[in-house]
Specification:
13 helices; 2 domains; Aldehyde Dehydrogenase, Chain A, domain 1; globular; 12 strands; Aldehyde Dehydrogenase, Chain A, domain 2; 350 residues; 7-stranded mixed beta sheet; alpha/beta
C-alpha cells in the first residue's frame, strides 16, 4: 500500500470526523455517512457510559482537533522528508486512555511510515478506534491486514510505542527495553503569566486548564505568577468553565481535595470549582492548580529547565522560549510530538 493511498484514506476519514465538532442533524449523503454516521454519533453519546470523563464536549473536541491533522496537504507536508518503509515492520502501540483517542497520533505516524500496527487499547478508551478501523477498511480493504487490536500479551513485533504513568513506564522498560522503543511517562503543562493579561487572555488560559477536566498532558497544572498577580481577575475570567462541576467525577475530586487540604491546615484559594495551592511541583491533582511566585524571569527559566522532563508544553504571552500563546495548549499541530520526541523520525529509521 502506497503512502499516497494511505493519506487519501486518512483525508477522507478526516472529512468524516470533522462533522462531529457539533451535532449534525442532516449529514451530507455519502457512502461513509450512510454506513457509519449513526454508529459514530451513537458512540459519542454512549462514551460517557464507559468512561465518566468522556462527555460530549470532550469527545467532540478531540475529534475536531484530529480532523485538522487529517487533510491531504497537511499530511503530505508533514511526512515529506521522511522515507516510506519498503519493508513494513510491526509496531506495537500501547495506548493511554486519559482523554478521547489520545493515542491517535501514534496510530497515524505508524501508518504514514508504511508499517503495520498491533494496538493495545486502554480499557478507558476502547470504543472509537475499532470503529475508525472499520471505516478505513471500507475505504481500502488492505487496512484489515495492517491494523490488529489485541487484549492479550503482545508478541511478534519489531518496535514499541507505549504511553502510561511513571509507574507503568518501569514495567514497559523491563518488558520492551531490548526493542526499539518510545516509552512515555507522566507530563503536565505550565503557564507563565505577567500580571498584564486581560480578561480575554485569562479566559484562554482557562481553556488550557479545564479542557478534558485537566486529565491531559497538555493541560496546564501549574502557573508561574509575579507577586502582584490579580487572582480576582483570573477567577472572574474562569467563570465560563464552572460547568465542570456538572461532571460528578470532577466534583468528587474537588470535594475530596478541599477537605483533605483544609483538614491538614493547608492554605488554599477556592473559587467554587477550582482550588489553588502554592506549590513548586509541576503536577497537581484534578480540580487543583498549583502556583509559584517569581521575582524575575530568570527564576522561571531556571525552574522550567529543572523540570523539563516533566513539562509537556509551556503557554505564555511573554517571550518564553518554545512557548505557545495562551489558549493553544489543547490544539497541537501535527508535528507537535509528545515529549518532544519525533515519532515519525523514529519510525522512519527502523
Amino acid at each position: 500500500m502506497s503512502r499516497k493511498a494511505i493519506i487519501y484514506a486518512l483525508s477522507r476519514l478526516g472529512l468524516f470526523m470533522k462533522q462531529f465538532e457539533f451535532s449534525v442533524l442532516n449529514p451530507e449523503k455519502s457512502d461513509l455517512n450512510s454506513l457509519f454516521y449513526n454508529r459514530f454519533a451513537s458512540c459519542i453519546e454512549s462514551s460517557k457510559i464507559y468512561n465518566g470523563w468522556f462527555d460530549d464536549n470532550s469527545v467532540r473536541k478531540s475529534l475536531f482537533e484530529i480532523s485538522k491533522w487529517l487533510q491531504e496537504d497537511v499530511l503530505f507536508s508533514w511526512c515529506l522528508t521522511y522515507p516510506f518503509s519498503k519493508k513494513s515492520k510491526k509496531i506495537a502501540i500501547i495506548m493511554a486512555g486519559n482523554i478521547p483517542l489520545v493515542g491517535f497520533h501514534d496510530f497515524i505516524c505508524a501508518l504514514v511510515s508504511g508499517h503495520s500496527l498491533i494496538v493495545k487499547l486502554s480499557s478507558n478508551d476502547k470504543q472509537f478506534l475499532p470503529l475508525i478501523h472499520e471505516i478505513l477498511i471500507h475505504l481500502d480493504s488492505i487496512f484489515e491486514h495492517k491494523i490488529e487490536f489485541i487484549e492479550s500479551r503482545i508478541i511478534h513485533f519489531d518496535a514499541v510505542i507505549a504511553t502510561g504513568s511513571d509507574n507503568t513506564a518501569r514495567y514497559f522498560d523491563f518488558y520492551f527495553g531490548k526493542y526499539p522503543n518510545i516509552i512515555r511517562k507522566n507530563r503536565n503543562s505550565v503557564a507563565v503569566l505577567s500580571s498584564h493579561e486581560t480578561k480575554l487572555s485569562l479566559s484562554l488560559l482557562a481553556d488550557d486548564i479545564f479542557t478534558f477536566y485537566g486529565l491531559g498532558c497538555r493541560n496546564v497544572s501549574k502557573i508561574y505568577i509575579p507577586k502582584d498577580f490579580d487572582f480576582d481577575l483570573m477567577f472572574e475570567s474562569f467563570n465560563s468553565h464552572k460547568e465542570v462541576l456538572t461532571n460528578k467525577k470532577y466534583a468528587n475530586n474537588l470535594d475530596y481535595y478541599r477537605a483533605l487540604f483544609l483538614m491538614g491546615g493547608n492554605k488554599i484559594l477556592d473559587n467554587g470549582f477550582l482550588l489553588l495551592r502554592e506549590n513548586h511541583a509541576i503536577s497537581s491533582p484534578i480540580a487543583m492548580l498549583h502556583y509559584e511566585y517569581y521575582e524575575s524571569l530568570d527564576e522561571v527559566l531556571f525552574s522550567l529547565d529543572k523540570y523539563a522532563n516533566k513539562i509537556q508544553c509551556i503557554v505564555s504571552d511573554i517571550n518564553i522560549p518554545n512557548s505557545l500563546p495562551l489558549g493553544q495548549a489543547q490544539s497541537p499541530e501535527i508535528d507537535d510530538y509528545a515529549d518532544g520526541f519525533n515519532t515519525l523520525k523514529f519510525l522512519s529509521q527502523l
